[in-house]
Design goal:
The chain is mostly helical. 76% of the residues lie in helices and 0% in strands. It has helices at 2-11, 17-38, 44-65, 75-96, 101-108, 111-122, 129-148, 154-177, 183-198, 213-236, 239-242, 248-261, 267-292.
């Protein structure tokens, strides 16, 4: 009944519950990243600690209460996914301190492209002509954005591309683990690994100032909200329907960046962002055409 209801809504060009959940998730992630950027004076690993601790406080008790496996069935791969995700998260948090919010998020969006390219060479997955074109368009967008936004230095570009590269690896690992592990088991491994590794850097930490505590607490809460609503969205709707709405996070980020940090873009720099999004949307379309063929 629920599936029929969703299809009827889609056929009527109405927003389904899954799409609403995705929009809430992307807004939550945008707010979380805004709070992370607001904590630019805190060490990056301390920010990672607070970000993951806030979610773990809610997730772990829920897993224990509902008897969801903590260990999982593939501990080695779960740890690998957690470490890869940690590297991506740390480099992204580092770059958020250095460049505008919208620029960091838009460049990191090319992560799935790295995943597809790695899957092509390592797993021999098929990549059609239009997907290759989409990759060129997206990378052209990165070059244009870097060329016309003087706030993006080369070290920051390396950081955000590193983050995107490891996002690509995460996508490959999730495509395997997602069919074999409970989604909360995967998230919990990631959270606990981040907490454990970040503690090795605690000698450089400091107590947050009073005006920083809102962001410290908020990023954990909004990060958890984003994860829960995104997971529910993908449970209710097909990926092909939801994927384009993921880029609403950038719209939110551009608005939040403007109001909270005074971030603006030249027309040429903004065209780079548009190219990146165009490339990613073209990739989604090309993959769907490939499936239908």
């Amino acid at each position: 009944m629920a599936n029929v209801f969703s299809i009827d809504l889609l056929d009527s060009h109405m927003i389904t519950k899954g799409v609403c959940f995705m929009l809430i998730a992307t807004l939550s992630f945008a707010v979380m990243n805004t709070m992370v950027k607001d904590l630019s004076n805190l060490p990056s690993m301390q920010v990672v600690f607070f970000r993951t601790l806030g979610s773990t406080v809610f997730i772990l008790p829920y897993m224990l209460k509902n008897k969801i496996s903590i260990r999982g069935n593939n501990p080695k791969l779960l740890i690998l996914r957690a470490i890869v995700g940690l590297i991506s998260l740390v480099t992204f948090f580092m770059v958020l301190k250095r460049i505008p919010l919208g620029s960091a998020i838009s460049i990191r969006y090319i992560g799935p492209i790295f995943g597809v390219i790695m899957a092509y060479f390592l797993l021999k997955e098929k990549v059609n002509f239009w997907q290759w074109i989409s990759f060129v368009v997206a990378f052209a967008g990165v070059i244009v954005l870097k060329g016309f936004d003087i706030r993006i230095d080369y070290f920051s570009l390396i950081l955000v591309l590193t983050s995107a590269f490891f996002v690509g690896i995460v996508y490959i690992l999730l495509s395997y683990l997602g069919k074999r592990e409970h989604y909360l088991t995967i998230i919990n491994y990631f959270m606990l690994t981040c907490i454990f590794v970040s503690l090795f850097f605690c000698s450089n930490w400091r107590i947050p100032y009073p005006d920083e505590w809102t962001s410290v607490i908020g990023m954990g809460i909004f990060g958890l909200i984003g994860q829960v609503f995104m997971t529910r969205a993908f449970q209710l709707e097909q990926t092909s329907l939801l994927a384009p709405f993921k880029y609403m996070e950038l719209v939110y980020a551009l608005i939040l960046g403007f109001f909270f940090f005074g971030e603006t873009y030249t027309l040429f720099a903004f065209s780079g962002i548009i190219l990146i999004i165009t490339g990613m949307l073209l990739n989604i379309w090309a993959k769907q055409m490939n499936v239908k063929v």
